[in-house]
Amino acid sequence: MSQMQSLMLVVSAVCLHGIGSAEEFCKDYGIQFERVYTVPGDAAALNCTLASPDVFDVHSTPYNISWYEWRSGRELSGGLGRIWDRETMLWFLSSTLEDSGHYECVLRTPNTCFKQVSVLIVNATELGDCNRPYTAAQTLTVIANGYLVCPLLTYMDHVDSYYFEWYKDCEPILEGDKYGFVNKNALLVREVSPSDKGYYTCRMIFNLTGTIGYTAETIDCQIIDKWILRPFVSEPANDTIRTDYGAPFNKTCRVFVPSKGSHRVDVFWATEEEFISLDPSDRVYQLTQSKKKVPDGEWLEVSLNFTVVQEEDFNTNYTCLVFSDKGILSSYFHLRPSDPNLIVPLVLLFTGLALTFLISVAVYRVFKIDIVLWCRSYFPYVYTDPGSDGKIYDAYVVYPRMCLGGSTGSAETFALHTLPHVLERNCGYRLFIFGRDSLPGEAIVDSIQENISKSRRLLLLYTASTFSKPEASLLFEQQVGTHSALVEETLQVILVELEEIRDSSVLPESVLHLKRKQGAVQWWRACAKDTERSLLCPSSRFWKQVRYRMPVKSIPASCLEKNTLLNF
C-alpha cells in the first residue's frame, strides 16, 4: 500500500468517525496514534487499550468489549473464520489486503461506555521477499557482543505458545558460534563487525486456542564504531557507603574505556576542596592508575585508601573524576558511620516474645477456665449486662425422672437439691426446674416452650438409661432444647453426665452431636475423686466447668465462693 493510500485511510476515518456505535453515546478516545502493519498471510492483532486504570477502575468494575467494522458498523464477535476477538484483542489470523481499514472497539460497563478506533494497514509484498515494509531500527556496537530483540511483545503476551525463527537478508539464521537464541525473542550476535549490518527478520509461529498462525517483524540493524563512545564509570555509583569509626577502608574507582588501540584517559580521586594525595604515607591517599585490557576495551582502576577512618571523614563526598577527549565524567560515594549492630538484641527480643507467647498459650490452655472465671469476677464491666437480653432464667434444667442407682444418689436429688444449692444459693444463678417451678394445672407443653424461650442455657442431665424409654415431658424438653441449639442457634446446651456412658449408641443423634462438638461435664468422675463436702463447693473442678459454660453473672463469683466456704 502506498503512502497516498495510507493517508486516504486516515482521512476516511475522520469522515466516518462514530459509525460503529452511532446509536449509543460513548466517551470517544478517537483514533489510536500507532498503526498496526502486516502483510497478506501474516497474523495481525489490534489491542483495545481502553481496559486501563487511566480510563476506569478495571479491577472492581465489570466490563465487556465489542469490535465493529468502522465503515459498515458490522459487529465482529466470537470466531468468524479468520477474525477472532479474544480478551482485549481482535485477531486477523491470516490477513488479506481487504482487511486494511479502521476497527472500533466499544468497552461497556454497567454505567457507561467508551470507544476507540484502531487502524490496520496490510501492505503487499513481492514474491520471495521476507522483509516487512516497515522496519524497527536497532543498533549493535563493534567488537562487543550484542542483542537484537524481536518487537512482537504484544503477541507473546496473548497467545498460548510460540517459538521464533530468525533470518538475515532472507537467509535462515542457525544457532552456532556467531549467533545464539536467548530469552525466547532475542538474537545474540557475537563479536559484532561492520559486516553484521543488514535487515534481520524475526518470524513468530504461535498457537492460539488450537489454531496455528504466524507473524513477523523486520529489524534494520545499524553498526556503531566504538571509537565514538565515551568512557563510563562502573564504581562508585553515587551511593552512600557505611564503615566503622577507627577501621581501615578502601574504595576502587572502576572506569571502562570502550575502544581499541591507544587512548588518553586519566582517573583521579578528589573531595569538594582538593585532589586526594598520592603519597602512601598520608592517612588518606590514592594509588596510581592501573589498566586491564579486555577484547572490547580497557578497564582503568584507581584505589582510594584510608589507613584509619576518623570523624572528619564522615559526611563527605569522595568523587572519582575521569578526564578524556570526550569530556569529564564524575561519580561519587558518601561516607557515613555504620549503624549499630542490632541483630543480637533483636534476636533476643523476638525469641523472648516468641517464648512468652508460647508460654502464654500453654498457660491459657491449661488454666483457661480459671482465667475466664477470674476475669468475670474482677472485671464484670467488660461483659454485656446479663439482663439486657430479656431472659428471666439463666438455665432450664432437663433431668430424668427416674432413679440412678449407685452411690451418687438419684437424678431428682441432683436436679432438685445439689444443683440449686450450688448454682442458685452460692453462685446467684436463677434456674427453672420442671416440677419445682412450674405452676399447678399449667399446660405442660406450653410451660416447657415458654420457659425454655426465657432461659439463656439448657442444662441437660442424663444417664445411660435416660433416653431408652423417656417420659413424654422429658422427651419434649430434650427435643425443644436441642432444636433451639442446633437448628435455631438461639440456645446453648450444657451436657451433664450423671453416670459413665460406656456405649455412646444409647444417646440420641442430637445429643451425641453436641457431645462430640463441645464435650460434656462429668458428675460421675467428680464423685469418684472428690469428697462429699467438696462436691458442693463452687470452686471444685466440676462446678468450675459448669460455671464456665453458664452465662456471666454480675455478682463476683469469688465472693460467693468465700461465703460458701464460710457456710461449710
UniProtKB/TrEMBL annotation:
It is a single-pass type I membrane protein. Its main location: membrane. It comes from Megalops atlanticus. Belongs to the interleukin-1 receptor family. Residues 391-550 form the TIR domain. Keywords: Disulfide bond, Glycoprotein, Hydrolase, Immunoglobulin domain, Membrane, NAD, Receptor, Repeat, Signal, Transmembrane, Transmembrane helix. PROSITE patterns: IG_LIKE, TIR. One of its GO terms (molecular function) is hydrolase activity. It comes from the Eukaryota. One of its GO terms (cellular component) is membrane. SUPFAM superfamilies: Immunoglobulin, Toll/Interleukin receptor TIR domain. Pfam families: TIR (PF01582). Residues 41-118, 148-204 form the Ig-like domain. This is Interleukin-1 receptor type 1-like.
